[in-house]
Design a protein that fits this description.
By secondary structure, the chain is mainly alpha-helical. Strands 1-2 form a two-stranded antiparallel sheet. A hairpin with a 4-residue loop joins strand 3 and strand 4. Helix 5 runs antiparallel to helix 6, helix 6 packs antiparallel against helix 7 and helix 13 packs antiparallel against helix 14. The termini are far apart.
């Protein structure tokens, strides 16, 4: 740098000396002298820039002792040598434009400049090396992270190839049906077999459903319906098992009361139906109608008549209930009231022909 500064100062002094010696020169000569000086200054500035760039590129990058040494290949760059000028000549009758200066090959000097190094070959600092190793390693995933990751399904995935673009439809997501309990599965299979007429297989499935869930009322009722056709003697046992687990179930009570009536045990049937709690008349009229018939069977006509009156208030179009009320009133000696009840039974339809003949016969007597 000191050499370049000396050269520039020498050039400036020579320019000042030349300016004093050529005061009397003509105007065209002054213009040519200024142009040459400008060109020389630009050339010297270019040399300075190239030398500074070479020195900056030559500075080695900091690297660790363990890193591999980067190979730097020197490249020779031709630089024009600035000729030494002792004095500026005065050219007479020179054109205003300066002659183009083309440096001779002998005036070229070779300056070593470091060749550019690829980014991946540059030595790295320890922090940069750790970052590169961290980026090169695949991210660790835990089973919990994989489980918590929510899969996303794009509407349409487009796969582009060099020849064409193929549209891939999204995968079909099948919604699984809700899983039924094992007892419900057996019950549903029994219903399907019963619809196909396979009574034996349906019976097995209903029994399996009750084994899995003894409180499954629907399976017990279907099993009773099948047993009434295939093994009537087993119906009572299935009903007793159901009442042992669900003693307040009105439907099981009615079915077992009918079984007791068929077995000529009406008193037990009445006790079963009279046991609390009882359903309301408007909620289960058949329950109370069966109890009234059983009371009539055991000759408790007064209790039966009261129950028939309650039933007819709720449903006055039942001819069979009018008939039962007439029988109970007649047995109590209330002939006029019994006659009205028999007439009401004929007024509404629904009696079987044999029962209708019985009512007419009783009207002739009363």
């Amino acid at each position: 740098m000191s050499l370049l500064n000396d050269m520039l100062r020498d050039l400036n002094e020579r320019h000042r000396q030349g300016d004093t010696s050529t005061v009397d020169a003509s105007l065209p000569q002054q213009r040519g002298f200024r142009l040459q000086r400008l060109l020389l200054a630009l050339g010297a500035l270019g040399v300075l820039v190239l030398v500074i760039g070479g020195l900056w590129r030559y500075q080695p990058l900091p690297r660790d002792a363990g890193d591999s040494q980067a190979t730097v290949t020197p490249v020779r760059v031709p630089v024009a040598r600035v000729p030494e000028i002792e004095s500026l000549p005065v050219v007479a009758e020179q054109s205003p434009q300066a002659e183009e200066m083309t440096p001779d090959s002998s005036d070229l000097v070779m300056v070593e400049v470091d060749a550019p190094v690829a980014p991946d070959k540059l030595p790295l600092t320890p922090d940069q090396d750790d970052l590169r190793q961290a980026d090169s390693q695949p991210p660790e995933t835990s089973p919990r992270a994989d489980r918590d990751k929510v899969p996303t399904i794009a509407a349409v995935d487009v796969v582009e190839t060099a020849a064409q673009t193929r549209v891939v439809p999204p995968p079909v997501v099948r919604r699984s049906e809700p899983q039924l309990p094992a007892d419900q599965v057996s019950y549903q299979r029994g219903l399907k077999d019963l619809q196909r007429g396979d009574v034996g297989s349906a019976l097995s499935y209903f029994q399996e459903a009750l084994r899995l869930n003894p409180d499954l009322l629907s399976a017990r009722l279907q099993l009773i319906s099948v047993l009434e056709q295939r093994a009537p003697e087993d119906v009572a046992g299935v009903l007793r098992a159901g009442l042992a687990r669900q003693p307040e179930q009105p439907l099981l009570r009615k079915l077992y009361a009918q079984q007791l009536l068929q077995q000529q045990r009406p008193e037990e049937a009445v006790a079963l139906l009279q046991h609390a709690p009882q359903p309301a008349v408007d909620a289960d009229a058949e329950y109370h109608a069966l109890l009234a018939a059983l009371l009539q069977e055991i000759r408790d006509y007064e209790a039966a008549a009261k129950l028939y009156v309650r039933l007819l208030q709720f449903r006055p179009q039942e001819a069979l209930w009018w008939l039962g009320l007439g029988i109970c009133l007649e047995q109590q000696g209330a002939s006029a009231q019994a006659r009205q009840a028999y007439q009401s039974a004929l007024a509404v339809s629904g009696l079987r022909p044999d029962l209708e003949r019985y009512v007419r016969s009783r009207l002739q007597v009363l």
